[in-house]
Amino acid sequence: MEVRDMGFEKISEEINASELLKSYQLSGKDLELKNKRDEELRQIILGEDQRFLAIIGPCSAHDEEAVLEYAHRLSKIQKEIVNEVFIIPRIYTNKPRTNGDGYKGLLHQPSAQGKSNLLQGIQAVRKIHHRVITETGLTTADEMLYPENLEYVKDLLSYIAIGARSVEDQQHRFVASGIDQPVGMKNPTSGQLNVMFNSIYAAQQQQEFIYNNQEVMTSSNPYAHVVLRGGLDANGKNIPNYHYEDLVTVHQMYQESELKNPFIVVDTNHDNSGKKHLEQVRIVKDVLSSREWNQDLKPFVRGFMIESFLENGRQEVDGDVFGKSITDPCLGWKETEKLLYSLAKNK
User: Fold this and answer.
1) Which letter does DSSP use for residue 238 in this model?
2) Dist CA 32 CA 179 (whole Å)
3) Residue 97 confidence (pLDDT)
4) Which end of the chain is more exposed for a tag (fewer CB within 10 A), N or C?
5) Under CATH, what is the fold of the domain 20-345?
6) Using the 8-state DSSP alphabet, how is residue 14 labeled?
């Protein structure tokens, strides 16, 4: 009987991280701009700056030119509402797949309809973040799906998200404790808030572990914070957690904890909307109403994570509509523009 040799087959040369990071580096005024915006974002999380935070953009950044067009439009709005809302474009280049099937993001597929090529994908990821920063003046957010890959892009990021499927993973929690950027940690798909709070606690502590082939000790990340994205019950039914009672509960859990810099972001899509993209507008209004009803929430409930693109809805991977999502359905531009201006008026 033939015994199959199971394991890992090397299909590329070892990546030289120092050489890779020389591509699409920030320098001069672009680096100054990023450092300035990074500090502004930290002040928002600290509560010294009471502006709203809007982490907004397509579910997946599958088309570089469409993403750039979208980011340019965001940049124009940012200039008009800069005193009320701090905008960070979602440039999400890794997509978690529950069963491993489907489009996995720009990192895996530099061309959405092409084959997987992660070496080209890493360059494509650096390029798109670099272009958004240098061409629009906005700094970006991405999701940390693969912690070991963070070294290849973190110099270009202002905000990092830990997704619902990753937030229970110890490596994600520990890596989050060693990075400089604010980290939004979502509740898991079960909706359990204590899991999310345990993750934030771990990220706000010093940790020791093996990372990129060496033992490291992290500094801790005081900017790790809550992202509410809803959950699913045992029957797969959506359980939103953006309602007034949910916000009060999370605020109380923060007050009873020893966590630093309590800050609450509401993810308006996913299990909060049931992926009904137009519901995101109503959810933002609902959260704003809750803040007005209970003034104690105002200093803490100041973030929104919104999925939007140039066109409403979604299309299949082989679709050819410019600026339309190929993963979760997104708000179109007209709705997005109106929502951001409305958010600014409510500041």
Assistant:
1) E
2) 19
3) 74
4) N
5) TIM Barrel (3.20.20)
6) P
